[in-house]
TrEMBL record:
InterPro entries: ATL_DNA_repair (IPR052520), MethylDNA_cys_MeTrfase_DNA-bd (IPR014048), MethylDNA_cys_MeTrfase_DNAb (IPR036217), WH-like_DNA-bd_sf (IPR036388). PANTHER family: 6-O-METHYLGUANINE DNA METHYLTRANSFERASE (PTHR42942), ALKYLTRANSFERASE-LIKE PROTEIN 1 (PTHR42942:SF1). CDD domains: ATase (cd06445). Residues 11-75 form the Methylated-DNA-[protein]-cysteine S-methyltransferase DNA binding domain. Keywords: DNA damage. This is Methylated-DNA-[protein]-cysteine S-methyltransferase DNA binding domain-containing protein. Pfam families: DNA_binding_1.
Amino acid sequence: MAGVEPEEYVEEVLAVVERIPPGRAMSYGAIADYLSERSGRSSARLVGSIMAKHGGGVPWHRVVAANGRVVPGHEQEALARHVGEATPLRNGRVDLARAAWWPDET
């Protein structure tokens, strides 16, 4: 990875996830895109792998697939957390048209 070491990239991904406000969400791809300038690559799959291995200590449920699907295998807990945060949902998925967040937002 150009720009950052793999360990640094893990920390940057987790730092972005920690900043996602309650009731909002980002897709794996959006996180990868946001970090691409510093890291030199944009890989939603890599962000997903990082979240699977290291995401337990951050609000992992706020990271969803591009279609709003929550974390496979943890759907019930993720959806309960989203309901508790009043995240816009649609058909059992996060409504990214209304819930999407970008780190530069105030």
